[in-house]
UniProtKB/TrEMBL annotation:
This is Lipoprotein. Residues 1-19 form the signal peptide. Keywords: Signal. It comes from Pontixanthobacter luteolus.
Length: 116
């Protein structure tokens, strides 16, 4: 019986280790899935304030920006993400609510620095 328990513990440890090894990629993938893309119809004030070019950047760069947030030690995975109302035409700001209750933000300027 002890041998069966040891085998079960070893199997669990192996799967647990694999899950830990996969976690960073899973966190990034989940961050992408948690993003709410913005559309002109749903966000007319933001569209007018930041303009069509920045509005497009907000959606196209979101996956990369949110992956950086997901990599932060303070975030255990992204539950919900979007574009902040504080965004300007020069600097988009994304927000993410993490499963652990942490709210994280990243600006386009910081994203360019962290990406390198």
């Amino acid at each position: 019986m002890t041998r069966a328990l040891n085998l079960a513990a070893l199997t669990f440890s192996m799967f647990g280790l694999q899950a830990c090894m996969d976690a960073p990629d899973a966190k990034k993938e989940n961050a992408s899935d948690a993003f709410l893309p913005i559309e002109q119809q749903g966000f007319p004030e933001m569209y007018q304030r930041i303009g069509p070019i920045a509005f497009g950047r907000a959606n196209t760069k979101a996956d990369s920006a949110l992956a950086l947030i997901a990599d932060r030690p303070s975030c255990d995975g992204v539950e919900l993400a979007g574009v902040s109302d504080t965004s300007t035409s020069e600097d988009i700001v994304w927000y993410a609510y993490c499963f652990n209750g942490s709210k994280e933000t990243i600006s386009e300027g910081a994203f360019q620095v962290e990406k390198k």
